[in-house]
Amino acid sequence: MKREIIITNDGSTTIRIPEWDENYHSTHGAIQEAKHVFIKNGLNLFQNQAEIAILEIGFGTGLNAFITFIETLNKKKVNYVGVEAYPISAEEVCQMNYVSELQVENFKTVFETLHNCGWEIENQLAPNFNLTKRKQFFQDIDDKSKYDLIYFDAFGFPLQPELWSEVIFKKMYEALLTNGILVTYACRTPIKNAMLAAGFLIEKLPGAPGKREMLRAIKKS
Fold first, then answer.
1. Please, what is the end-to-end C-alpha distance for the chain in angstroms?
2. pTM
């Protein structure tokens, strides 16, 4: 399936799939969406925690993992697991401009390593940051009580509604520790209802620029 690189409104790149009329990130701004949804409304809630385990649903371009690495460097220990069924190519990695847009040239090698390191093994990107990439369908996730935080960054509901179902969110619920949090850019009624049916408590929050709302789900038991 054809994929093309586009520039979003904040200057950062993303991948577009013309056949699906779908983008990996918001066209209003890939970086600003990642920072708003996953960092501001997810990671930042754990500022006083010395160690955190994160599961990303949709590793994609590596943007969320890369920003998380930058935000946590020398601050806390991170065990990061990224699940992706269809990894992007080396050529596509080279076209992502996150290093320059984030003005972190000293971490260029880290961004490359995010993609070049091995799958299904734990890779140490820094003394405080371990990354495990799993080539896996979301339906096959079976982790139990393992993560503090889930970045849920699947393709949109209209394209793949089965990824936003009660079945999937039950897996997410089971993967989280008690008081664990799931954050996602989406906020459709069927998604909210699926989360509630899976056992989550739900918060509607202001969305990233260009989007009205997003969802944060909490496991309380």
1. 41
2. 0.97
Residue pair 63/110 in contact by the 8 Å Cβ criterion: no
Which is the CATH superfamily of the domain at 30-218?
Vaccinia Virus protein VP39 (3.40.50.150)
Q: 6 pLDDT band (50/70/90 cuts)?
A: very high
Cα torsion 76, 187, 191, 163 to 10°: value is: -60
Pairwise CA distance, residues 23 & 158, whole Å = 13
Model confidence at 98, in pLDDT bands (50, 70, 90)?
Answer: very high
The neighbour count for residue 33, using CB atoms within 10 Å, is 27
Cα distances (angstroms) measured from residue 157 to each of 48, 101, 153, 165: 34, 29, 11, 9
Q: Where are the domains of the chain?
A: 30-218
pLDDT digits (tens, 9 = 90+) for 155-164: 999 889 999 9
